[in-house]
Sequence to fold (385 residues):
Amino acid sequence: MRKRLLVLGSTGSVGRNVLDVVAHHPDHFEIVGLSSRSNAQILGEQCGVHRKARFLTLDPEAHRRLTAASPDMAERAVEPGQGSFATLIEVTAPDLVVNCLMGFVGLKPTLDALGAGIPVALANKESVVTGGELLIDASKRSGASIIPIDSEHVALSQCLAGSNIGDVKQVFLTASGGALRDRSIDEIAEAGINDVLAHPTWRMGDKITVDSATLLNKGFEVIEARWLFGLPLERIKVVIHPQSIIHCLVEFKDNSILAQMGIPDMRLPILYALTYPGRIETSVARSRITDFPSLTLREVDDERYPCFSLALRAARAGGNTPTVLNSANEVAVGAFLAGNIRFSRIYDVIESALDHVPSSRIGSFEDVMETDRRTREYLKREFGI
Fold:
């Protein structure tokens, strides 16, 4: 029987890779639902391939264009609006929700799916950063699993398989270092949008590519690892690995070290997440280990990646502080990509939010929403962004 998949954020880079994996394994997977924020053209093409899939676009104009295309498309559409993701989950009744949404918007549908007892393959790291405790509680209540898609967390789950967390001395998440990793500090300060988006190994969306350059994406992944694997923060380390072949290393208390390796192709961790807890044979992303380049690892340079220190500060503070971190980063990266602030100002914006938005505990989704609102209001007042 084929596994029925609902792909949220299907028109983004991760979502398109999910559909590529599905295309390679039509006997194993069926797409029953798709969603996009506003990309009517790509979503329409995806609906043409997956002709039974229901779909949702959050943009009213994109919804109008797609539903006007044919009576069939109008019938398959879910109306955008409050609770539309929950409706899409309900009408598709998938075996697995694949959350590839970008940003804070991904938290509520993750909670909705888990609350309905549906496991979630999660590429939306902001969900765990802002609402990790809520997600773990929802998963425990319903018994629905959270399956990571990020290559580092997929690697970590494989390295930890069958092991006791108490036997783990420390884990090392690897980071490519981003597009500016070999630039001087002065060059980093003057980096433009095209410089920051020229990632040397991974092909990703603009926002996460900027997060890679600041190393904030790896700070988010530290917070994710804490929640998803129950690891103490002090045992989670990050190292720069330019070749992006090693995705995680785990050092155990007997000083042995396990590493998970693979070429930098998102389809490999996606396939693992879609087939978990099993594996299937695949023609996706084949490689020969003799073709691997020389592998190097080095410590994170705090001067080169000051935003990473802010992420660790937020992780240690807990409560609503990681939400402040995420919201401020979304605002700052959006302003940078719009040409409204310089790259170096991303740090200033996030630090200011962490310094000035009041800290509190997170007990509900509404608490997360309120922190997000306060953070964005503060940044609008202080920076005009």
